[in-house]
Write a structure and sequence with these properties.
With 382 residues, this protein is an alpha+beta fold. Among the domains are: 148 residues, Probable tRNA modification gtpase trme, domain 1 (Gyrase A, domain 2); 82 residues, Beta Barrel (Elongation Factor Tu (Ef-tu), domain 3), CATH 2.40.30.110. The protein contains nine helices and 21 strands. β18 and β19 form a beta hairpin.
Length: 382
């Protein structure tokens, strides 16, 4: 096997973990990795616009085993998990998933995982990039609740794109096509125990496969690739172009511990009237009553195509800095630069004119609705 990427560029020693699919990603020609949840996340195999087109028209495979699971079990697992999130989990059935926020006592966002309810008192949290395992253990320490919290041997991959349905049908049979958006089934593939979910980070039709035996990761990868060979299945990194089009936020930049749900357009996640208690309840009630002082607005940025921003770009109005662009990228299908800007609430009104400092100089910008594509999520639900 010829390595196409020199891991010594981003690794020294054995501290950072490699996924069960790592050798397969090298073999497939991965050209770059980033570090996410103390692991290597493949970010690119080809030109990013080429990968975007493959996602829109075919089927792509992503190694997202960096979505580490926090598993919560025990007699009080429901009460404890409900405590972590402002979303009312009594509305989540066994076999169902939910996009949730993990909250801090001041209303800040600790993480935004996909939650899977595998049993009445059995939950997985598929994490974005922050240490929720440590946070959950800290919350549990003096909670008086009977829970067991661990990181199980579970390393998801995503199969995304319009042809993903046929790939998973070939792998798991017709029953998998009956899955509703954000539901899952437990099954196996050639003796590899897996959970298959109707979820994804792409805004396209997609599935995630959660194997429960990491020793068979490369074997699972090869089976998935074989199932889609004639459909042009292609390994890619997660598509920032597509996720910004879809209005999907990236934890660590679009939302952080210093932001609250109302600032980033996720106030619908907070169920104030639920019976169960949750961390940050008083703070979030106060923010909801007063209204947020700033908001994450959708913006279009004028001029030639821009690369995905590597830093926060200053946003100006009236000659002064009033906020920042958290994510921005050129959308080929819209033929414009789109992104998110954190600005004062009064400035977040649709049609507001702004100025953004980019690496290519000052650009005009305007506040527009988000998501930029498919606001009703008809594509991933189809």
């Amino acid at each position: 096997m010829t390595q196409t990427f020199d891991m010594a560029l981003i690794q020294r020693g054995a501290r950072l973990r490699r996924s069960p699919y790592f050798d397969a990603t090298l073999r497939a020609g991965c050209r770059s990795y980033t570090v996410y949840n103390h692991m290597f996340l493949p970010t690119r195999y080809d030109d990013l616009h080429t990968e975007y087109e493959k996602l829109l028209t075919g089927v792509t495979v992503w190694d997202v085993s960096v979505e580490r699971q926090v598993e919560i079990t025990g007699r009080d697992a429901f009460e404890f998990t409900n405590l972590l999130t402002p979303r009312d989990l009594s509305k989540c059935a066994v076999g169902q998933g939910k996009y949730v926020l993990i909250g801090a006592d001041d209303g800040g966002i600790v993480n935004d995982p996909v939650l899977l309810r595998l049993g009445e008192n059995h939950f997985w949290l598929a994490l974005a990039d922050s240490d929720v395992l440590l946070y959950a253990k800290g919350v549990a320490l003096n909670s008086g609740l009977d829970v067991d919290i661990c990181e199980p041997d579970v390393s998801p991959m995503q199969v995304q794109g319009p042809k993903s349905k046929e790939v998973v049908r070939r792998l798991f049979g017709d029953d998998v096509l009956k899955l509703r958006y954000y539901w899952f089934l437990e099954t196996d593939l050639d003796g590899i125990p897996v959970v298959v979910t109707r979820t994804g980070w792409s805004g396209e039709v997609g599935y995630e496969i959660y194997p429960r035996d990491g020793s068979r990761g490369v074997e699972l990868w090869d089976r998935v690739m074989d199932a889609g060979r004639d459909l042009g299945i292609t390994p890619t990194g997660p598509s920032d172009i597509r996720r910004v089009e879809a209005g999907i936020l990236n934890y660590g930049i679009d939302m952080t511990l210093d932001t609250n749900p109302y600032e980033v357009g996720l106030g619908w996640q907070v169920d104030h009237d639920q019976e169960g208690d949750f961390i940050g309840r008083e703070a979030l009630a106060r923010i909801a009553a007063q209204g947020p002082k700033r908001k994450l607005a959708g913006v279009e940025i004028a001029g030639d195509p821009l690369d995905l921003n590597m830093t926060r770009w200053p946003v100006h109005q009236g000659g002064r800095v009033i906020g920042f662009v958290s994510s921005a990228v050129y959308s080929p299908r819209l033929d414009r630069n789109i992104g998110y800007a954190m600005v004062p609430t009064g400035v977040a009104e649709l049609g507001t004119r702004l100025s953004v400092t980019t690496p290519e100089g000052e650009r005009g910008a305007v506040v527009v609705p988000r998501p930029f594509v498919d606001p009703g999520k008809e594509i991933p639900k189809s």
